Amino acid sequence: MNCLKYFMISFCVVILGHVVPILTEEDSVCYEELGCFSVEEPWSSPLRPVPLPSEPREIGTRFYLYTRKRPTKRYYVKTWPNIEMNNSRYDGSKTTVFIIHGFMSTGNDSWVEDMKNAYLNNVDANVFIVDWGVGASDGEYNRVCANIRIVAAEVTRLSKYLLQKERASPARFHMIGHSLGAHTSGYVAKKIPGIGRVTGLDPAQLLFEGHKKEVQLDADDALFVEVMHTDAKPTLPLLGAGILRPVGHVDFYVNGGWSQPGCQVPVISLQKLAARGISFTPVEDIVDSVICPHNRAIEYYIEALAYPNCTFWGRKQGIIKSAVSILSLGWLSRAFNYPSDCSITTCIPLGLNTIDYPARGSFEVATYTSPPYCIPERKVDARMAKELSLYLYNSADVDRH
């Protein structure tokens, strides 16, 4: 987008390693190499009162790279004023992964480290952790929703560098985002044609649900978009945090997607019990219980990556199956796990292998109440492995002819 549209003075500068605007109008701002950002529709409206994003240096987006050659020692990627990746061990011929956290989270959260480790244990990849914790911790949710536009622009800028300078391929990019990070992933994919895969972990609902696809994750964003729903109930009055409707090529509604078993009572961790004894803080623990189903998407995906010997099988949604799961708050989801109802067109695994299977649409996934969440289904594993092999063989045969 041309800065002339929004600037009276049509240039930007880099000062002290940070991008700052020279002059802006009230409804727009531009940053060199990141683009222009306005509050015109669809970005802001009476039903979506989202302001302009904070300045890039206030958001403080940072990138840390991990590879199998450096699985525990993070490599800080210098991005301003120029991108530098000397001795980073980045390999453009391998899969490139971006893990993006959401609201009130940081790149130093333990789950980010766990997901990175689980991914590298499965795939020899380049894994970038995107840390925008300062910009995500603004107490004003509306502002944080605006800030993800800057974060996405930063990721896009780095991605284009990798494509141009490191001979990476967009088809080998895998964007993984939780909550607001899911929509951030979508913004990046919208800007780079041919992104291979986007995984949205319970994409944020508030200020995204029901709005145009330009402002939210959508199936058109990448070659393959998969979405996990774990808190897909209305924000008002039920305090749901995750988007309700299907927005990917494959949408997993775990335990009905409405809530998760074990999240309906205050969550009191062992750490809390050790620190506070039997007592607990009602407000804090109620808040934990509200965000519990939203964060379960993270736990399920990490487990799917970390324990390949057990598969979370998604089955095609049905009206009765979904209703029972929702009304029982996920506790009765397992009642519909019949080995005989799985085929290559009706079932699909949650995890890295999702993309290998032909089934598309919305699927129900059942789990246990506590870790490990995955329900072993050996008969389904064996059947689906045979059907997948036959499917791939037939597909290759068609290609040969």
Features:
single chain; 401 residues; alpha/beta; two-stranded antiparallel ribbon; 15 strands; 17% strand
Describe the structure in your own words.
The longest helix has 25 residues. By secondary structure, the chain is α/β, with parallel strands linked by helices. It contains 10 helices and 15 strands. The N terminus is likely disordered. Helix 2 runs parallel beside helix 8 and helix 4 packs across helix 5.
Q: How much helical structure, as a percent, in the residues?
A: 25-40%
Q: Look at the helices and sheets and give the structural class.
A: alpha/beta
C-alpha end-to-end distance = 45 Å
Number of helical stretches of at least 4 residues: 10
What order do the strands of the largest sheet run in, or round the barrel if closed? 6-5-8-7-9-10-11-12-15-13-14
- Find the count of extended strands (DSSP E, 2+ residues): 15
Shape: globular
Outline:
The chain has 401 residues and is an alpha/beta fold. Strands 6-5-8-7-9-10-11-12-15-13-14 form an eleven-stranded mixed β-sheet, with helices on both faces. It has a two-stranded antiparallel sheet with strand order 1-2. A two-stranded antiparallel sheet has the order 3-4.
Q: SSE layout and pairings?
A:
Blueprint: E1 13-15, E2 18-20, E3 28-31, E4 35-38, H1 56-59, E5 62-66, E6 75-77, E7 96-100, H2 110-122, E8 126-131, H3 133-136, H4 141-165, E9 173-178, H5 180-191, E10 197-201, E11 224-229, H6 235-238, E12 250-254, H7 270-276, H8 282-306, E13 312-316, H9 319-327, E14 347-350, E15 361-365, H10 378-400
Parallel strand pairs: 7-8, 7-9, 9-10, 10-11, 11-12, 12-15
Antiparallel strand pairs: 1-2, 3-4, 5-6, 5-8, 13-14, 13-15
